[in-house]
Amino acid sequence: MEQSGTSTRLTGAVQDLASEVVSALRSGGPLRLAGRTTQADGDEAGPDGTATGDLTLAAVRVLGADVLLPAVLRGSPPGPDDLAVFRRAVHAFPPPAHGSPTSVWSHWAMRRTLLRLDASLDGALADDGAEPAGTWLDEASWQYLTHQLAVLAPLAVPGGDCAVSRAARRRPVDVARGFVRAVRRRDWLQAAGAGRWLVLLDGVPATLGLETGLDFVAQMDGADPRVALHIEAARLMRAGATV
Predict the structure, then answer these.
(1) Which residues are registered as beta bridge partners of 45?
(2) Which of 155, 160, 167, 196 could form a disulfide bond with 137, CB atoms 3.0-4.6 angstroms apart?
(3) Residue 23 CB burial class (10 angstroms; 0-12, 13-18, ≥19)
């Protein structure tokens, strides 16, 4: 029961944090992370014994680099205290040994974003420039490719060149097929993530009607903050937001 309670609280924390990211993306204001957590010694524990600050850090890890998306797409610089919370999440939740490629890549994306935005690191994470292996996508079916790209949608930012984005650029038609499949299956989170990638790709079939498709996804499940986050990111990028 404790594990179930923790999972429920984490899901709520992730949704709340995603809502705040969406609000910051729409308003152009910075995301305030520091007020959501304190040092672990002073954290209040929930009914399942999980400290509030620990839960916030876990939620940051789940959303990954998208927590700092307002700074990337809107140029709203995060404060040093907010960066400190993000940095704590990066260090608190490294990918497990033999972790899945998506776990490794999402952590790499967080570290890369931190390096880009936190000048105080001054080379402390210089060894993080090396990308994880990207070969697991080389022979992926279009269905699996779309699923993996949707999970790694925080990597879908302007100028975000890496093995994952290169795999997406090589197969725009397959990603478009995956987007349509996700819509038909009513998998709105996967559709929103795939649509976010499609905004950045050349060679997407005009017959897809991507803008209309994104509007449809937003209409069907835009109340889900994680879906809304990808839709808002896609709209900003279509409007010309750059890193």
Answers:
(1) 51
(2) 167
(3) middle
Contacts 24+ apart (CB under 8 A), 178-187: 178/142, 178/143, 178/145, 178/146, 178/147, 178/149, 178/150, 179/146, 179/208, 179/210, 179/213, 180/208, 180/213, 181/143, 181/146, 182/146, 182/150, 183/213, 183/216, 183/217, 186/220
CA–CA separation, 32 and 81 (whole Å):
9
CA distances, 199 to each of 10, 14, 65, 208, 243 (Å): 30, 25, 18, 12, 15
Q: Residue 51 forms beta bridges with which residues?
A: 45
- Has residue 48 got a pLDDT over 70? no
Which carries the bigger pLDDT value, residue 199 or residue 79? 199
Confidence of residue 54 (pLDDT cuts 50, 70, 90): confident
Kindly indicate the confidence band of residue 40, based on its pLDDT and cuts at 50, 70 and 90. very low
Domain residues of the chain, as ranges?
A: 1-132, 133-243
The runs of H, that is alpha helices, within the chain are 2-27, 52-63, 69-74, 80-92, 101-117, 142-151, 163-170, 172-184, 188-200, 210-221, 225-238
Let me know: does 167 contact 145? Beta carbons within 8 Å: yes
DSSP 118: -
The region, left, alpha or beta by phi > 0 then psi within -120 to 50, assigned to residue 109 is alpha
Q: What is the mean pLDDT of the chain?
A: 87
